[in-house]
Amino acid sequence: IHPYRQWFWNRGPVYENMGFDKFMSEENMPPLEKRGTLSSDAALTDEIIREADSMDAPFFFFAVSLQGHGPYQANRYPDSKLEVQTDASEHTRQSVRSYSQGAMDADASLERLMKWASRRDRETILVFFGDHLPPLGPAYVETGFMTSRVASRTAPAADMMLQHETPLVLWSNKRGAERGTGTISPAFLPLHILDMAGLQHPYYTGCLVDTSDAA
């Protein structure tokens, strides 16, 4: 489920080839409420819960949210009450403010999903992660986080980790949070998800275990 067009990143054919039974996108979903200029995380969460509650059999959802995507233009959220205190430029202050409001909204949506899952009898596993840091290039330079607007491909490993690592939440309504994953590639997420669910698969809990141990 992704509240944008199927052609972007060729998602329609890609998801079908990956084995997904259905792809809910802008073309076949009811219009979702906007937050700023993009479909809101709150509306996407409503759709996830509605779809999940309609299913009797076990299911796997992969939801790609849209609201928090850049660019983070000034006044993206006119009703935002957030204040950003910084010695950086006004442009940077406004960009960070817009990003922070989106992050706060995403956090609120995750909280809603966790409260919803906590009321379910069936075990429900939530995985929440980002694919890259937000594109806040000028803010990174002005605050000294990076020396250029784009992450270097030749920086020391510790710097590259800092510039690419994103948070990960892996949580079950029956067992709570999984805290032993450490720093991993998203490629290994299926291994941890199936392991948490108590499932076995020749590739995902077989080959990936061997690859992970060797990495």
Quick description:
Strand 4 and strand 5 form a beta hairpin. The chain has seven helices and five strands; from the N terminus they run H-E-E-H-H-E-H-H-E-E-H-H. With 215 residues, the chain is mainly α.
Describe it.
It is a single chain. The protein is mainly alpha-helical and 215 residues long. The chain has one domain: Alkaline Phosphatase, subunit A, CATH 3.40.720.10. Helices cover 39% and strands 7% of the residues. The protein contains 7 helices and 5 strands, in the order αββααβααββαα. Strands 3-4-5 form a 3-stranded antiparallel β-sheet, with helices on both faces. It has a two-stranded antiparallel ribbon with strand order 1-2. The model has no long low-confidence stretch (mean pLDDT 94).
The poorly predicted ranges are none
CATH homologous superfamily classification? Alkaline Phosphatase, subunit A
Q: How many discrete domains?
A: 1
Radius of gyration: 19 Å
Query: What's the β-strand tally?
Result: 5
CATH C-level category: Alpha Beta
Helix proportion of residues, in percent? 25-40%
- In percent, how much strand structure appears in the residues? 5-15%
Q: Order of helices and strands, N to C?
A: HEEHHEHHEEHH
Taking the sheet with the most strands, its summary is:
3 strands, antiparallel
Structural class: mainly alpha
Secondary structure: elements and pairs:
Layout: H1 11-17, E1 34-35, E2 38-39, H2 41-53, H3 90-118, E3 125-129, H4 137-142, H5 157-164, E4 168-172, E5 176-177, H6 189-197, H7 203-214
Antiparallel strand pairs: 1-2, 3-4, 4-5
Helix pairs in contact: 2-3, 6-7
Membrane topology: Multi-pass membrane protein
Protein name: Cation tolerance protein CutA
Keywords: Cell membrane, Membrane, Transmembrane, Transmembrane helix
